[in-house]
Structure formats: C-alpha cells, structure tokens
Amino acid sequence: MVRGTRPAQSAAEVTIGRDILDTAPRTNATDVLRVVPGLVASQHSGEGKAQQLFLRGFDALHGQDVELNVGGLPVNEVSHIHALGYADTNFIIPELVQSLEVTEGSYRAFQGDFAVAGTVRMDLGAREKGVEFAGTLGQFNTRRLVVTVRPGEDPGTFAAAEIAESNGFGPQRGYGRAALLAQANVDLGQGVSAKVLGGSYVTRFDSPGVVREDDLEAGRRTFYSGSFPRQGGTVSRHQLLIGVDLPREGTARTRLEAFGILSDLRLRNNFTGYRVDDRGDGLEQTNDSTTLGLRAEHRRQATLFGRPLALELGLGGRRDGIHQTQRRYRETDGTFFADEVDADLTQTDVWGYAEVRLPLGRWAFRLGGRADALGVEVFDALAFRDPRYYDGQGYSRSAFGVHWGAKAGVEYALTDTWALFASYGDGFRSPQARSLSEGEQAPFVNVHGAELGTRREGERLSFQASVFGSQVADDFFFDHTVGTTVFTGETLRTGISAALQARPFEGLTAALSATVANATVTKTGAKLPYFAPLVARADLGWEKPLPAIDAILSLGTGLTLIGPRPLPYDEYSHTVFLADAQAALRRGALALRLDVKNLLNARWRDGEFVYSSRFDATAWPSLIPARHFTAGAPRVASLTLEVHL
C-alpha cells in the first residue's frame, strides 16, 4: 500500500513527518500541536479541557478559527456551550501521530467550517511492527502506560491504548485519562479497499482557575495557587469512521466515508469569584452531542481544450444533535441556584466543492469554489421564563443560511523544486445556534484571505515563506473568562511566516518556523486582544549509532518563543521562552528515554487576562479591571522504558 500527501498548492502548506515529531517530548496533544508553524496551544485550564489556539493573528479560542481533523474524523464541535468550534484533541495518543498536514489560511476548497486561520489534519500510524510497551514515571506522581500493537507491515493498521494519571504540578491540577484508538486498512479485492477507525476516551480533571496579579504581589497567593476547589470537569468521546476506496478507473479515484461521534462534557469554572453574585460566579456547563456524517471525494485527470487538468470534487453532510445546559452554583456547597441555559439543538451542514488545477508550462492556475448550506433547529426550554407564571415557558425556532466561497491560486515554477505562489480564499465560521432567531438567515462569519509566497521542495532542505492577510467582515471576540462577546465590526489580520525543514546529513533533523502577525479593528486601528504577534519554534533531533554497545543514541530539543500578546486596556502579556529536551538510548528491544519539559525552569504564564473580579467575598465590589494569569508548568522530568516485541 503506497500513501502520499496532498500536493501543496499554496506557499503555507506543510507536512510534518514522524522524524520531526520524534525530536522533542510529545506526551500529550498540546505537545503535538506546538510543532505546527505559527500555532500557539495553551493548556491553561487543566489537562482535560480543549487547548486555546492562536494562529496567524487569530485568537481561535478553543477551535473556532482552526479546523482540526484526526484520521478523517472531524474534531471541532458546532454551537458548543463553552466555545464555538470547540476542538478537544486530548483523545489523541501522541505515539500514533504519523504526520501532520497543515494548510494555513483558507485557500483550498476542501477546507470547511472553522477553517479561518487554517486546517490541521493528523494522519495516524504505528511506528514499528509488533507489540510495544511504554511505561512512564515522572514528577508529581505522574504515571503513564501506552501499549501499541501493529500486526503487519502497514503502519496504518494498529490498536493502541493509553492510561495516564498525575497529581499535577500544583493545587487543583490532577487528572486521569484513558484512551483507545484502533485502525485497520483492509484490501477487499477487486480494487476495493476499506479503512476503519474507532476509539474511546474518558478523562476526569481538575482546573486551578486564575491568580490575580495583585494577590501574587501582596503575598496573598503563590504563583501556582488555585482559586476555587470545585473547578474541573469530565469528558468522554466515542468515535467510528468507515471509509471505502472504490476501484480506480484510469486516473479517477473515489473515496466514500461515513463517521459517527458521541461526546459529552461537564465543565466547572469560576474566573471572576464573587463579582456577579455573593453566592459565587461558578458556572457548570454541560454539552452532550451526537454527530453523524457522510463524505465523498473524487479526483481525476481530465483535459480541457487539449490541456491536461486535475479535478477534485467533494460532497458531504453532517448532522449534530446537541443538548446543553449552563447553571450557576454556590461556592460553599456546589448546589445550583440559577439555570441559564437548557437547550436542544439540531444543526445540519450540507456542502459541495470543486477545484481544478490547470498547468500551462511553468505556470499553473487553480480555481475552485465551495458552498455550505446550514439548517438549525433550536428548542430553548428556558426562553420567556417568568417566575410569576406557570405557562408560556420555552420556545422553538429554526434558521437557514448558505455560504458561498471562492478559491483561486497562481503558481510559477522557477525551477523543478522552487516555485512562487499567489492564493486567495473565502473561509467561514458557522454561528452559535442559540443566538439565531426564528426564520433568520443563518449568518456566517465571512473571511477573505490572500497570500503571496514561495516554497522550495527537497529531501535535504525544504523551505516556505509567505506574506498573508485576512479580512473578517463582521468579527467578534469572545472573552470566555467573563462570558462576554464583543462585536468589533470589520477586522484585518496581516503578517509574514516562514518555515524550514532540514536533514543535512544522516541522523540530523531540524524544523524551524517563525510567524509575525498583526490584528486590528479596521475602523479604529486598535489592536485586537489576545492574539500572538510573534511565534517561533525550533525542533532539533540528532541520532547516532553506537557500534561499541550495539545501541542508538538520540538527543532532541524543542524551543518555543511567544512574544508579548496585547491584552484589553492597553496591557501586554509577558514574553514566553520554553526549552524542552529529551535523550534516549535504544539497544535491541529495550529503550530508555528521559524527557524534560521547561528545562530552564522558567516561571511563565500560560494564559494572561485583564478583567474585573472579586475573589474575597468580604471585599467591596469593584469593576476596576485587574490582571489575572494561569501558571505554566515548571520543569518536569519523566523517564520512559520501552519494550519492543
């Protein structure tokens, strides 16, 4: 079975292979995501909550502007109670990530809902044939066991399980999780092949909340303090994908896929203390969803006026059924005192796209389009609730809308390996269903993006650089710490990015990237809060055989630099520099690996926010904004023993 990556047709498309992923410690999904050029993945609310993502000048919150896909399964959840596009990747077992296909921007027709800043697709596969056991012991009572079975030569056929738990590096940071992923590629004969991917995941985690900066300076809190003990949550996810590749007819290839996902979340947090209510501002949110979907992709070579062209077509549909609630609870005993959301949603997206690429000598032209039709039904059980009456409570409503998007690109080949690119694309983000009124035309957030860049392909050295810009017609940002949506009108993101992969000689692997971005409100020129203006990443790995002891020594490091991010009220976050390192020695069936994260033991802030709060219930209420932060992990070391059979 021969597999290939999707050919790059814009400057900022990049494939990150296993050799790069193996250069630095990767023990969870956050570690995997950080290797994506320009992407910041923040895990500020515990090990079980979806990461907050920043890419190309967008604060994507928990996924609203980054489309994520794992092995063909969509990760983003529509109309989620906590955040639009909520993308929880914690079910991923890092050892199974074979490669990442990254398409930054929104320039390709296959990119769908939430592909505003870009799309990240993860391909899964087991590293070695046979059975692998990996047991990890680390600081803070961290324990992890991964078992992987690959029965044959195909890395895409495997089964793996992970169990992990830890007390965490400070108060209210403990977690426990278990994950199972299994995939099979099957040749059915007569040119038909099938792929089946399934998995289950469950976690229970604590969340530390935030620390006020003035409480830290006054000595009332330590850097790693927790705020309220009831924060955290539980998550489970069960998923199945079945795909069939039909027999080839000449150059034509057709793939059909069906998938189903069951997921649920119960999340408790309190970021403001007693600012809103003397009983406490704690919120418990639940989101139970069932996702069913179908996809069809068809690719073929054709001719137009005697010229060869490549054609790609896609059709699909996805239905999400969601029940979600939001309640306020007392900090004293955890009992509920107010119901704010109790809703049932049905959201259906039907899409189709087409893209054609026409080469003309050194030139190549790409033209495509995509249409998404969205239908929404909402039953709001608490609408029009009035305690004076016993009738008239609850309301049903429905809405429908269509998003039309154009895609285009021009490519000029300077040499066989070096080309220039110009790309344009319309991206979109679906709305929160509960915000729609009866009969409303479902409003999509429309994004118009353009990019100029260059790329060089090669086995020893590949490089890409681009200048990009994205205009959002009617934008908003959501501050999830205080639950406030701020509509900003038209916004503009601009920037430059570059990425390099080098394998100059046997045993040495390097991946370097840097992105500089700016995000402003068009009308006022004011900077949008929370986006990351500077993100740089370096992953370096070296492998050397040691014939004297018949072993292989591996050394690697991952370096991350995040520049000061603008915050509300003209504040800026602190600069973050992190260095991770690993050293491994393998002899035959045994391997021993030492992972050290935050090697320099930097005292860094994983999340920084500015808003008003009151954490002392006896203090006088105030709406004066204050700085808050969540502490990043200190230096954490772990030792892993691997047995390969």
Automatic annotation (TrEMBL):
One of its GO terms (cellular component) is cell outer membrane. It is found in: Cell outer membrane. It is a multi-pass membrane protein. Keywords: Cell outer membrane, Membrane, Receptor, TonB box, Transmembrane, Transmembrane beta strand, Transport. It holds the Pfam family TonB_dep_Rec_b-barrel. One of its GO terms (biological process) is siderophore transmembrane transport. One of its GO terms (molecular function) is siderophore uptake transmembrane transporter activity. Residues 236-599 form the TonB-dependent receptor-like beta-barrel domain. This is TonB-dependent receptor.
